[in-house]
């Protein structure tokens, strides 16, 4: 059946992956139920594990699971098991082998100032370096998550008020992160000094909500208020919201990948409709890299808005030429390769009647390793296409991320290693085109990229990282990246 | 959260449902693995239960499960547990309360002529009447499935050859059905005298395959040969295919609902691309019921091809205005109402940026009870639409099915009880339109409907049932519909 | 660790096994709860599967499980899931490979006369012969259980009243059996014409109870009334008990193995305390086969009463020299050999302080294959015994059972193949002794065995089978024993 | 069914419970398999959770479960999942509500000196006081187990060698404890300065084993070498055993409850056969509190040796008058009261034939709250006893434990609150007797109790606690006992 594996495979297996989505709510009766709904709306940001912590002002409750929110939290009313009027929640994708329950967030600890729970989207780029120093001082680590480093820093901070300690911890760490935390009295939200990872504030009657995307607000009927600012800490309690500035000179520079791939199309990010930005990418792509074809076919589902934009710009018919099987087993969250080999390529098939004898343009949001693109091209050719052209609605991905996006290493990124001609040949297509970095900034509504201080985090395309990468440099210099040698079987 | 339930709900909860998909293969080494792949491709025809039976020519093996094929059969190689070169399989949707494992197919029995396994898509309209007569003669029934009646008829038939007994049983039953059966020597396929339910023959090297749709052939790399004819029995063994005519005067009259909703868009049914037929429905719908709107939004996913057809016919922009959450838990296969209340409306949300301030045309494949349509309309309005118009790509559904489609009773079918004006008011839309029955026949490539002998089974729209409905009449006359009073807890 | 396997092993692995226990109750509010308690008391008669059926006079409910009663029925109130005032229940041991849920009892069928459920302890010795004839007439069998044959015979019987049909079916079958059945109106109990398998009647206020042993009555506070007679059918309904005689010339001849091993020591069987009978076996054993030893050690748990009897008769100290680990996993119900190899020998250990340097007499209820006895002897020697003597509280087992007892075939029965001297050598003991058949009858309170018409079923010791063995003879003559070639994976 | 609850109940529900058993092995190929076998032998010391940690000298592996060893570790070869030549393991009983996986041992932490795993039997009486101080310094606690305090003390100790740090930590804690720990290089064992909790050293060819009882050595074929001394630390590595003295003036004073109830009868504790000591308790009990009765009946299973001792001393017949149902579901490890109400009293029944019309003496190992004793007495009376006398083979329990034994508070201990006459009345017996404290010392082989420096830890009978009880005093003084307010749902 090797032939089969080429013509009906998994389009998602070469996607990059967000590591997390976070959610928080203060001041509703059954906070856990709102958290479950909000996390469900954020499920696309991480499908491997999920957790909720609540407090009623004295007792904390936590519940953490491997698997989907909808399988773990919606069966019964979660707020019966997790009472309280404050809740935080987390969805997570993680690399294989480390997915044990002790790494699932929110993490909880008893500090001298009382109980504290924390959920985190992003990555701290000097976590291992800090951890080494802490362990040397006798600190005990229970997880391999970088989030725990933050809790240790808070626990050991000398500040009087909780907020002081929290800000003190933030100032010791580098990276891209959005935190949602909770004491027995308040809900806390914070964003790194560049605002790399997103965090938004919403309002639900008299209550406040924090979430990674606006789609979580839509799910529970909350109103979007504003974004948490770059380097800002917000503390929500019975008296309302207070704002603290952790980094006075913070410059906002949100990650473009939220627009390219991560965010749900119906979310508003940085004040922009993700769906509209993606259509504009397709529109600009049509201008930059035209194609003489009969039909435009999106690579489902993330290629759809750009393909529509391309089609509307050119007048060429848009058709669903690749059909997705919605009833695939949960194979894409199975960590074993055996499962991937067996189940994962069962997800998509070609719609022959829209392809046979036609010149086809495939539009995808991006090209990572190129392996899946090649399989798609072969599937389309096997369905009888006369020509196959391919367009990426984002620029060539040439540099790895270090802020919480799971991505192959640089030697696996096709655009980092091959020319356009080579890639055209490798993908076996008649033509290949990428959106330019200028085109991407145009789609974002900018006239041009301010090279000395870019308006967005765009290192994957440009190599321009906003923060130092201390753990990375230490690792390259031969320093151990990983202290833990524990393998937990169950 | 009652507000929430209006603005983010489950579009599928008012769908009608196919009850089954069937598959069979003769002459491959690991027949069960092919059956698992084929059933996976047919999963859209039934998500509640699945089963496979195999034989190696002497021993029979069966494995039956509640749940999806991909969760039950693809984890390991199924042909290790289910050895053999002949396999049949079944996917099933069923009404709540009866989903116990003993009703899951394929059913197996030892006949005097040897072991026999049977899987069935459709419904036998005189099953209860026959069952009563058999029980009176001392026959024991173990399931409440109508399929078991057929096995009893075969067991009690006097014919010498197995085929004679099988044909004899077929001649005693009315209804719409596609059978895939298996003895230790052969694979059997059969279709009712009108060919209401589909069954197709494919070829895989030297082997033969039977399936409800061509997408199952695509999945395993088999070539589509031909349909099983109306009233035909095919017997496949080592010598190839033999054909028997159970009903000499059979007139082919396939069910239109395969095109309207059931079949996968990439399947070829009755020689036609389902995707193309659906686009033609949308095209004709645009001609019959034009609308002065800014944007065309499909009700996902089954409304997409018709919406594309409508948009291409009119030049009005097609946009994804309703976003589907792919990570919904398995709530739609949960039988309890509690789960439906909690989880099921978490599936879709409005893409506000494509709706706000616009005149919107929603296109769906059909309208059943109208309850979901109303919820969708409200969701679109809540997202800021200036006007909302609604179009059904099929004619008004006025009559229930009796051939294996799970559908509400007549008093719940909105079009059976209300005028177009009333429905426009009930759905709270600015205009409402349905495809005409003539339009539907046109989309199918027919010039007109031959009223004295319709080319298709279209009773849901016309009340014109191809077969007698004996059990139904008996029930209306006060006769018991159901012999069984057993409730099986587990 | 091969040494380990000798010195700490499973004493139960060479036990013979009862196949079933049955229970029925008529006329209590929550009949299923009484059934669960009664079955729990009968759990020693079968640990592999259990089931309960109830009726409230119109609807029947059934629930059947693999595993223990206490794991499946006591967690919640079973009568909530299984409402009704009549209940029957079943516990079962069965040979590996056939333990699929469809074979678990009670079996339910809809007859022309209405619903009927049946549970069965014992074995029908002409079941396969009858089944062949029925299948030839077109009867469909769903299980491989001999119990289903009885239901088919009832279904096809021409009698007018249900009782006539039931008696007619009984007269067509041979074997040792106790039936507990149920229609929507009545509870039925029946015993084979020799009363080989036990069945007793109890009273619970105004209600009636049927059970295999009195310990089930003690559990629920019911009073023992009388045994069902050999060949008697009792029908219990709102008017009380009616008795029918299926076999006018029935001669009572209960199975001695109930006393030797099966029945719980606190049960009263055939009017005798099982515990007292076992002590009398030990007392007589001491007289017949004295031993010059320092300490008497029972093989736990079934050897304990006989060892006490031996010790009291001789004045030699009785000590617990073998300690049982109560926390063994459920390995003894695991069918795989791998599990047995790994887990099963973890059950017992030697109490060295009572053994070291002593002359030890081991007393067990019986010796079957001798393999376990040998392992026990080695364990006792490894703990430092100076001499080891062995006594069996029953006579040599030389003939297999055919009435529902799971026992090795004749070539595996040590006493059927070897002399006392050979066995003494094989068991590696200093002396070996068995109770005589006369001694066993004496322990039962009889003066002597009436050889022409024995008072008890004793064929395992004497070869004297009370009934014809038609299936067995047919099998020996080359006729197929088994029609079914189905392997059900799950 | 309230009547039922009196006559067939759970004898174990009023038992006191050991909290833990520990095991360690150094220098075998598949250390985890030995640990699983050893823990299985120690299962009677804790049935609620179990865990194993291993190391191969570089990577650590852990696996922790709720439930029995035999259900979690013996199915497959545990050493495949848990490779390594060093292993430690733990079985645990714990109070309801705290049984979440994060509290299950062994606990693992990365220290500055490398990975470290620890398992613990006993209780640290100043753990909360130390924890408060550590949290104030910024230490993070992940479990509510007192064991974690020890790991923090090791992590923060300034010693150079690991052993120095370990001894330093031990010197900061009070209580009764036996530790088994493991670094990547060595296995560590330690016992509190009074040797309250047991720990023994065994030898398996060239390897060493540590365990709570000798029965764990018997299970794997290891030879018992010696006890770990009071206040001793043993470190086992490739060079053999080294011994360190944590407390120079340690005085050995092992806990008498190991003999009264906890240890398995076939274990050798403090050089004495537990079975023999228990028989001597019964023998002395017969001398101290004679009874004019017809039969001696043990309360199973822990009352058996003392009842045998009583019977042999007096010549009165010993009979099994209470029968235990071995097939009870796992109800006794279910934490909910509902389960206890339903299932737990299904465990025992009276053997009427040995009781009816007789004067019965019941012998149990101890009396805790007296509630179960009363139920047993009622069950025996309901079975027809003419008189019922009761003897406890240990002295009256008047004081709670603080060293790892789960026991009711003082106001629930019957002997702490009532006179012998009152208890005789409350238990509804004709006479009641306890072994004297002198009798208990005699049974232990001592001539008399040295009151100024008792040879054994006997505070439950005498109130004489060997260590300060700092947490307890702080709690009585109004200081919080518990820092953690976290409830973990799953």
TrEMBL record, chains A, B, C, D:
InterPro entries (alphabetical): GATase_2_dom, Ntn_hydrolases_N, PRTase-like, PRTase_dom, PurF, PurF_N
Pathway: Purine metabolism; IMP biosynthesis via de novo pathway; N(1)-(5-phospho-D-ribosyl)glycinamide from 5-phospho-alpha-D-ribose 1-diphosphate: step 1/2
Chemical reaction(s) catalysed: 5-phospho-beta-D-ribosylamine + L-glutamate + diphosphate = 5-phospho-alpha-D-ribose 1-diphosphate + L-glutamine + H2O
Binding site for Mg(2+): 302, 364-365
Gene3D superfamilies noted in UniProt: 3.40.50.2020, Glutamine Phosphoribosylpyrophosphate, subunit 1, domain 1
Active-site annotation: 20
Cofactors that this protein relies on: Mg(2+)
Cofactor note: Binds 1 Mg(2+) ion per subunit.
Function: Catalyzes the formation of phosphoribosylamine from phosphoribosylpyrophosphate (PRPP) and glutamine.
Family matches, as HAMAP family: PurF
Similarity field: In the C-terminal section; belongs to the purine/pyrimidine phosphoribosyltransferase family.
Name of the protein: Amidophosphoribosyltransferase
Origin species: Algimonas ampicilliniresistens
């Amino acid at each position: 059946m090797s032939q089969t594996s080429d013509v009906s495979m998994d389009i998602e297996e070469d996607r990059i992956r967000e590591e997390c989505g976070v959610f928080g709510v203060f001041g509703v009766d059954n906070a856990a139920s709102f958290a479950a709904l909000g996390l469900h709306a954020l499920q696309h940001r991480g499908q491997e594990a999920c957790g909720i912590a609540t407090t009623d002002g004295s007792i904390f409750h936590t519940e953490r699971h491997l698997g989907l929110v909808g399988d773990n939290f919606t069966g019964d009313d979660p707020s019966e098991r997790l009472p309280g009027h404050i809740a935080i929640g987390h969805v997570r994708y993680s690399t294989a082998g480390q997915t044990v329950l002790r790494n699932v967030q929110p993490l909880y600890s008893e500090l001298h100032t009382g109980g504290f729970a924390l959920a985190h989207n992003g990555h701290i780029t000097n976590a291992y370096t800090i951890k080494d120093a802490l362990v040397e001082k006798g600190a005990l680590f229970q997880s391999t998550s970088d989030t725990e480093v933050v809790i240790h820093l808070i626990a050991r901070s000398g500040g009087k008020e909780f907020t002081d300690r929290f800000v003190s911890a933030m100032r010791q760490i580098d990276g891209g992160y959005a935190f949602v935390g909770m004491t027995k009295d308040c809900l806390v939200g914070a964003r790194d000094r560049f605002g790399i990872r997103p965090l938004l504030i919403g309002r639900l009657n008299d209550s406040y909500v924090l979430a990674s995307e606006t789609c979580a607000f839509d799910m529970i009927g909350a109103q979007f208020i504003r974004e948490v600012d770059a380097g800002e800490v917000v503390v929500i309690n019975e008296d309302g919201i207070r704002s603290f500035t952790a980094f006075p000179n913070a410059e906002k520079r949100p990650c473009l990948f939220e627009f390219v791939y991560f965010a749900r199309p119906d979310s508003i990010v940085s004040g922009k409709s993700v769906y509209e930005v993606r259509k504009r990418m397709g529109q600009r792509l049509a201008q930059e890299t035209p194609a003489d074809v009969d039909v435009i076919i999106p690579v489902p589902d993330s290629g759809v808005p750009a393909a529509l934009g391309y089609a509307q710009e050119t007048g060429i018919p848009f058709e669903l030429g690749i059909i997705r099987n919605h009833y695939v087993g949960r194979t894409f969250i199975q960590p074993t390769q055996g499962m991937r080999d067996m189940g994962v390529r069962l997800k998509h098939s070609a719609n022959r009647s829209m392809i046979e004898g036609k010149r086809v343009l495939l539009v995808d949001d991006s090209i990572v390793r190129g392996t899946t693109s090649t399989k798609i091209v072969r599937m389309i050719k096997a369905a009888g296409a006369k020509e196959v052209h391919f367009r990426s609605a984002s620029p060539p991905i040439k540099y790895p991320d270090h802020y919480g996006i799971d991505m192959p290493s640089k030697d696996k990124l096709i655009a980092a290693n091959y020319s356009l001609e080579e890639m055209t040949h490798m993908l076996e297509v008649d033509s290949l085109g990428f959106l330019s970095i200028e085109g991407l900034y145009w789609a974002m509504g900018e006239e041009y990229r301010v090279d000395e201080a870019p308006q967005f985090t765009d290192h994957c395309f440009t190599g321009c990282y906003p923060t130092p990468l201390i753990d990375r440099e230490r690792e390259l210099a031969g320093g151990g990246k990983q202290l833990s040698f524990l393998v937990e079987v169950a």
